[in-house]
Amino acid sequence: MKIVSEMFYDGVITNATFSAEEDRHPNTAKLLAYFSKRYSKCSNSKTPIIFFEVVGKQAIMDSTTYSWYNLETAAFIINIIEDAVIKGKFKPDIFSLVTVYTVQVMVFYYPLRCLYVKYLNFGFN
Predict the structure, then answer these.
(1) Which of 43, 63, 74, 92 is the most buried (most CB within 10 A)?
(2) φ/ψ of residue 80, rounded to 5
(3) For the chain, how big is the Rg over CA atoms in Å?
(4) Most distant CA pair in the chain: distance in Å?
């Protein structure tokens, strides 16, 4: 069984069709501009969903839960969210982290909690 991001990168699933400006979410244009400036591969994206892969880093299976996690990928994503909120002036609640792995949820929970403590007035709660 393949995970969604693998299916996307293998061309099995693709982005949805481009929607007209008036049909988009209010944050779409701002987010696309933000990501285009920071990540050149995002410059042609026309959707607010972006898959990132940290090349060369393998997921690890937790020996107790048999759930997968990847610390490097989680750190990369947390850094993106922190930068976008602190420098890009986005609200934290516009970001969604989707994972099917229980341990990966816990891997995200701690650093997100640390962002809340570090930046009390930015809405990371």
Answers:
(1) 74
(2) -60, -50
(3) 16
(4) 48
Is pLDDT larger for residue 7 or for residue 85?
85
Ramachandran class of 24: left when φ > 0, alpha when ψ lies in -120 to 50, beta otherwise = beta
Q: What is the pLDDT of residues 59-114, one digit of tens each?
A: 889 899 888 888 888 898 899 899 999 987 888 888 888 887 888 888 998 999 99
DSSP string covering the chain, please?
Answer: ---HHHHHHTTSS-PPPPPPGGGS-TTHHHHHHHHHHH-GGGTT--SS------TT---EE-TTT--EE-HHHHHHHHHHHHHHHHTS---GGG-----S-HHHHHHHHHHHHHHHHHTTTTT--
Q: What residue segments make up the domains of the chain, in order of their start?
A: 1-51, 56-125
Residue 1 has pLDDT above 50, yes or no: no
